[in-house]
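Hey, can you fold this one?
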Amino acid sequence: MAVETKFVVVRKGEEKMTFASKKEADAYDKMLDMAEAFTDWLIQSELPLEEAQLENLGLFLAEQKDAVQHILRTSKLPEAQPAVKAAKATAAETDAGKAQDETAKKVRAVKAA
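Sure. Predicted structure:
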């Protein structure tokens, strides 16, 4: 019999994601905290957007924190690696439906947070 250790990120009594390492679980939890803070900040800004759009934007900013930090420091877009661009283009073409499902899950994760 095999024994597995799993780390589960739980927000307000709801399981969000399961990880094999504590480090990954902590990083995901921190990203959700950041997304919640961004969302609260965007809601306070009174932008003419729906709450779901503000939540999506908050989650996007949290997921892209390295790029956001780079832009704030340098006022320039970070340079994307060519291999990453090609992989994203291929993935976007083949997994368009999957990406929409993941976005819906992330929105639910932020709402529950």
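The chain has five helices and two strands. Let me know if you want another pass with a different chain boundary.
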